Amino acid sequence: MFPNVNPKQMGKLMAQMGIKSEEIDAERVVIEKRDGSKIIVKNPSVTKVSMKGQSPTLQVAGEITEEAGGEGGDAEIVAKETGCTIEQAEKALKESGGDLAQAIIKVQGG
């Protein structure tokens, strides 16, 4: 956390100030945004930090990727029309900027 600081001493200091931290063993973190897109954190390091008188916060670090969201289940439509997997449909939608017709053409090899 800080260079040249003993982690045990840092933990004691934080406890004296009323700050508690807890490591959370997570495999993946997904944040679903209001526009339907997602932020996915793979191999995350997640820490829950609690301070007296405040709501707990989560600190998340890891490999971040973003997935575009499609309104009305666009990935499902592409998958149904082309016979591809949802993952392939999502990739095609992302590459086509969310354009449903272009995504279908892309999956069909056009």
Can you put this structure into words, describing what you see?
By secondary structure, the chain is of the alpha+beta class. The chain folds into two domains: 49 residues, Ubiquitin Ligase Nedd4, Chain: W; 34 residues, Helicase, Ruva Protein, domain 3 (Orthogonal Bundle). 34% of the residues lie in helices and 33% in strands. It is built from four helices and four strands. Strands 1, 2, 3 and 4 form a four-stranded antiparallel β-sheet that branches. Helix 2 packs across helix 3 and helix 2 runs parallel beside helix 4. It starts with 6 loop residues before the first helix and ends with a helix. The model has no long low-confidence stretch (mean pLDDT 88).
Low-confidence stretches: none
**How many individual β-strands?**
4
Which secondary-structure class do the elements indicate?
alpha+beta
Average pLDDT metric: 88
What is the CATH architecture annotation of the largest domain?
Single Sheet
Count of structural domains: 2
Task: Tell me the series of helices and strands, N- to C-terminal.
Answer: HEEEEHHH
CATH class of the largest domain: Mainly Beta
- How would the global form be characterised? elongated
Helical content band = 25-40%
**What is the CA-atom radius of gyration, in angstroms?**
21 Å
Provide the β-strand percentage band.
25-35%
Under CATH, the topology of the largest domain can be stated as: Ubiquitin Ligase Nedd4, Chain: W
Number of helices: 4
Largest sheet: 4 strands, antiparallel
The rounded distance between the terminal residues' Cα atoms is 51 Å
